[in-house]
Amino acid sequence: MKPNLTFKHCPQCGHPKTPEDKIPFECEVCEYTYYFNPTIAAAGLILNTKGQMLFIERAKEPAKGKLAVVGGFIDNGEIAEDALEREIREEVGLTVSNIQYLACFPNQYNYKNITYPVLDFFYTATCEDTRIKPDQTEVAGYHWLDPWLVSESDLAFPSMQKALARWKTTNK
Ligand SMILES: [Zn+2]
Question: Which DSSP symbol is given to 76?
């Protein structure tokens, strides 16, 4: 279900919401307005000194068990590059450098029966010390793989598939 369809009442005044699929939500009584903008995420295509790229196996839904690149949602007030470094530290315990913007693609994130719109910002980064300390609540496994041998279809989300394809195009 789309997030805007979960509103049954105005969050500010409680007036019943008419069941229409309209964004933004605008309350006809108190004029409260809510835009349902996409959530922003940052993800990293991390390369070690051998040219291998880090892929994790997702430990939880959505896309449990599928391969993914490391990343996560950006907090309020945080810039994308800081969020990326934080997520990499939290999920796999790595410190990266040479963070460079690659591309951004929209995505959809299904969580507890709600499909949230997301905008994923992808970066490349390098890593010298590759000793991984995975957060096992998020990461079921990890692999350093030759990115040219990884098929886009093995990745969890369409946005990640497009990001890997973009990386291959720009690194031919
Ligand atoms: Zn209202």
Answer: T
